[in-house]
Design goal:
alpha/beta; three-stranded mixed beta sheet; 6 helices; elongated; binds zinc ion
């Protein structure tokens, strides 16, 4: 069976909840311009709404998925939709030559999205997205973390690196992992 997923773009989370039945959706089988919602249920703790739809023309059923778009506000004031792919791209650069694969990057991007969505705001400043990256990246790879943090926090001197490295060491000590390698294979 064809698993047809559609992402409806809309602004804001709360309005989505009251948007019963959603908008009309073209049938993926016969291209009929409208379809009837036969069932709606929340998934991913309410982050997604899955709708089972039925086409009045050909009678076939299909599923759509609606997700509230999270807008990232850049320093320039321009907004763009939150994108895990973008997060992965940015972090991948910091991970060059490091033992970090795409699965790990995808998991990191997922964690970042969960963190920023958990705030419940429809818009989030880009620097908060950067902040949300730092934690999971530090757990993933300390060298990549230092590279990312140096750009993100605009390190200007060796002193900035030294302070960050001291902070890394201190947090490792707190975790009771003195002398152990940062990452395990
Ligand atoms: Zn149809």
């Amino acid at each position: 069976m064809l698993d047809w997923r559609a992402r409806k773009l809309s602004v804001g989370g709360p309005s989505l909840r009251t948007w019963k039945g959603g908008v009309s959706m073209r049938c993926p089988y016969c291209r009929h311009a409208d379809s009837r919602v036969v069932d709606s249920r929340e998934a991913d703790d309410g982050q997604l709404i899955r709708r089972r739809r039925s086409c009045p023309a050909c009678g076939k059923r299909f599923t759509t998925v609606e997700e509230a778009v999270l807008a990232v506000v850049k320093r320039s004031g321009v907004t763009e939709p939150f994108s895990r792919t973008k997060i992965m791209g940015g972090v991948r650069k910091a991970c060059q030559g490091r033992p970090v694969d795409d699965d790990a990057l995808a998991l990191l991007a997922q964690k970042v999205e969960e963190t920023v969505r958990a705030r419940g705001a429809a818009e989030i400043p880009s620097h908060e997205v950067g902040l949300a990256i730092l934690g999971p990246l530090r757990e993933l790879d300390e060298v990549a973390y230092l590279r990312f943090a140096s750009v993100y926090r605009s390190f200007e001197s060796l002193g900035d690196f030294e302070r960050e490295i001291s902070a890394l060491r201190a947090s490792r000590d707190d975790a009771g992992k003195v002398g152990e390698p940062a990452t395990s294979a």
